[in-house]
Amino acid sequence: MEPAQMSDDEAAAFVRRRRGRNIALLVVLVALVVIFYAITMAKLTSSVS
Amino acid sequence: MSDLIRRGATAPLSISSGAISADWSELRDWVALLKPRVMTLVVFTGLIGLLLAPGHIHPVLGTVAILCIALGAGAAGCINMWYDRDIDAVMRRTARRPIPAGRVEPGAALAFGITLSVLSVLMMGLATNAVAGAWLAGSILFYVFIYTMWLKRRTPQNIVIGGAAGAFPPVIGWAAVTGGVDVLPLILFAIVFTWTPPHFWSLSLWAHDDYARAGVPMLPVAAGARETRRQIMLYTLVLAPLGLLPVLMGQAGWVYGAYALSLGAGFLFHAWRVLTEPQDASGVSLVGDRAAKAAFRFSLLHLAGLFAAIALDHWLRAAGVLG
């Protein structure tokens, strides 16, 4: 079966969308790391105090 | 994946992706799936529940709890959009949503909603306690299974019972701090629960054609506009005194009482205008549903005002300003 074909414009739009998606995913992952770190530190601080 | 990007029938397309900027329109669609406008009110009522609760919560954990309430509400909204994509496509108000417009794949939206649901519940349990996590899970499941899948397309009482889903946030906020539930959050639950039908029926009076086209038995479709106007009045008659319950039960002072009295009177005034505005024999407005639109706008102000007032009253009393 032939792979799907795209014009130049469609391919460029595809790459732009994929780039946006990848950056958003990166932001989400970093945010999760920060949130879980913050939760851990807050829990530790609360239990110590 | 790049193998799939081909120009013509032969050579693979070579794109210098470094020269191409990111497209954020897709991100906007994913955010739209979370129903951000609904989320605003949910976050606000959840925050008030959290602030009113006795005891202390670390500010970071409190912030995470509110984030989880927002994510959970958004996740439930996302799954709702996935399930309702067929009726959303035929309703003018919802046809441009990401799934019916073809901008987001239904399966991807469902996966997004489920992932966010699980994440929000786990994070809530981890940051605060299991009780708050369980309430959040219950509210998501209620909205998805009881309201969206069971009631919405079957009964004109859909929004009455389903309204409970939107009433959970103050209870969740309270539970995040205390690990339990008390009288005040249950009163707040009752206020949002009773507020939802007149709020939503005001909207459905002028969105009547949309619901009829989609076959959703909202009250104006199933029982007619005249009966809907009567029901809006009846529910508002229950809601107005219910707003005073925190004062009567010693949970709030006169500052809140004065606000609740005036806001309740304001909502009754709007409900009366909805009941009596010029209409034909079946109750359909002859003046473009002006009264229903005004009542809908006021209902938002009413709920936000009530919750802001009870928080203000609480702080003033805690600071000793009101004794």
TrEMBL record, chain B:
<comment type="pathway">
    <text>Porphyrin-containing compound metabolism; heme O biosynthesis; heme O from protoheme: step 1/1.</text>
</comment>
<keyword id="KW-0812">Transmembrane</keyword>
<keyword id="KW-0472">Membrane</keyword>
<dbReference type="InterPro" id="IPR030470">
    <property type="entry name" value="UbiA_prenylTrfase_CS"/>
</dbReference>
<comment type="similarity">
    <text>Belongs to the UbiA prenyltransferase family. Protoheme IX farnesyltransferase subfamily.</text>
</comment>
<feature type="transmembrane region" description="Helical">
    <location>
        <begin position="132"/>
        <end position="151"/>
    </location>
</feature>
<dbReference type="InterPro" id="IPR044878">
    <property type="entry name" value="UbiA_sf"/>
</dbReference>
<dbReference type="InterPro" id="IPR000537">
    <property type="entry name" value="UbiA_prenyltransferase"/>
</dbReference>
<feature type="transmembrane region" description="Helical">
    <location>
        <begin position="104"/>
        <end position="126"/>
    </location>
</feature>
<keyword id="KW-1133">Transmembrane helix</keyword>
<dbReference type="GO" id="GO:0005886">
    <property type="term" value="C:plasma membrane"/>
</dbReference>
<protein>
    <recommendedName>
        <fullName>Protoheme IX farnesyltransferase</fullName>
        <ecNumber>2.5.1.141</ecNumber>
    </recommendedName>
</protein>
<feature type="transmembrane region" description="Helical">
    <location>
        <begin position="256"/>
        <end position="275"/>
    </location>
</feature>
<feature type="transmembrane region" description="Helical">
    <location>
        <begin position="295"/>
        <end position="316"/>
    </location>
</feature>
<feature type="transmembrane region" description="Helical">
    <location>
        <begin position="38"/>
        <end position="57"/>
    </location>
</feature>
<dbReference type="GO" id="GO:0048034">
    <property type="term" value="P:heme O biosynthetic process"/>
</dbReference>
<keyword id="KW-0350">Heme biosynthesis</keyword>
<dbReference type="Pfam" id="PF01040">
    <property type="entry name" value="UbiA"/>
</dbReference>
<comment type="function">
    <text>Converts heme B (protoheme IX) to heme O by substitution of the vinyl group on carbon 2 of heme B porphyrin ring with a hydroxyethyl farnesyl side group.</text>
</comment>
<dbReference type="GO" id="GO:0008495">
    <property type="term" value="F:protoheme IX farnesyltransferase activity"/>
</dbReference>
<feature type="transmembrane region" description="Helical">
    <location>
        <begin position="158"/>
        <end position="177"/>
    </location>
</feature>
<feature type="transmembrane region" description="Helical">
    <location>
        <begin position="63"/>
        <end position="83"/>
    </location>
</feature>
<feature type="transmembrane region" description="Helical">
    <location>
        <begin position="183"/>
        <end position="203"/>
    </location>
</feature>
<keyword id="KW-1003">Cell membrane</keyword>
<dbReference type="InterPro" id="IPR006369">
    <property type="entry name" value="Protohaem_IX_farnesylTrfase"/>
</dbReference>
<feature type="transmembrane region" description="Helical">
    <location>
        <begin position="232"/>
        <end position="250"/>
    </location>
</feature>
<keyword id="KW-0808">Transferase</keyword>
